[in-house]
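Ticket #263: bound-state structure for heme C.
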Amino acid sequence: MSEEKLYSLRNPWFSISVGITAAIAVLAALVGLIWLPLLQPNLKLAGIWDAICSAAGVPGPSTQAGAAPPAFKTSNVVVTPEMLTRQDQVSIGRGATLAQRCAICHGPQGVSDANSPNLAGQFAAVTYKELSDFKTGARVNVVMSPFAANMTDQEMRDVALYYAYLPRVPSSQVNPNLLPPAIVVTGAPMRNIAPCGSCHGEIDVKAGSPWLGGQSAVYIKAQLQAFASGARRNDISEQMRNIARQMTAGEIDQVARYYEAQP
Ligand code: HEC
Ligand code: HEC
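RESOLUTION: The complex was predicted; output attached.
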């Protein structure tokens, strides 16, 4: 019996099986990287290289061209957990003077009698972010925007620290016995809604999430409706818009009344 070498191209079994394996690999690559991506009607790929990039999950020519900035202003504030957490008496003092202009709507103690949002005890990072968004036009409100338009960055920080320093005042609707609606505690996983309490208190407070307790139900409801319709779109990564769009009118009513009744 001839001692034929196993790993040799002269061995027909070896060359045929290697050949078949290589052919399967090439075919699979053609199908997976080129043919299947090009079949997707909504991908709008520019060519073979684009299809390969898209299948491999790396940015290709079309995704780079497609990453056009949105047609509206987005927030340019980056909120970090440490942002504006240090009490600075000088800054608070300057903020108190500046806040006199805001008192007619937000109340002399940062608690509004009208339905403007309460600012007393609001996290400074939140007040600062909202003010800069009003200033840059990322958030728009005909009544409020003009007041932020001329503020300097330092003034916004001062006034934010001042309001954070003022004590929170429970609204006249306060009712600590009101049970939280399910959406606040457990969210609605089937609709991709995380519990409100995981960002807004109760469970955890995430940087940049406003304190909602004691805020008027009218204001909360209006903001949720604005997020849902896209009229307010300064939330980073659409985190509130994605939630509000999925909420029912009944749930919006319920959470608004619940948060208004919180201290
Ligand atoms: C003429 C009334 C008026 C005045 C004066 C005013 N605001 Fe406002 N402010 C509003 C209204 C109304 C809103 C809610 C806007 C909305 O619905 O989007 C608001 C919203 C805000 C918010 C966002 C709050 C949140 O929880 O998102 C901040 C922060 C704020 N104002 C700060 C100020 C500061 C600081 C001043 C003074 C320099 C000021 N405002 C002056 C009416 C006013
Ligand atoms: C993943 C974290 C997160 C979850 C979950 C979340 N929120 Fe928010 N929410 C935010 C952030 C951040 C903002 C501030 C957006 C911005 O930058 O202006 C916000 C803003 C709001 C505002 C506007 C407050 C103001 O003063 O302007 C309301 C009202 C609100 N959320 C209600 C809710 C309700 C109700 C739920 C549950 C159904 C919820 N949120 C769940 C993070 C969250």
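RESOLUTION NOTES: Residues 117, 129-130, 183, 193-194, 196, 198-200, 206, 208-210, 212, 220, 223-224, 234-236, 239-240, 243, 247, 255 surround heme C (ligand 2) (CB under 6 Å).
TICKET STATUS: resolved
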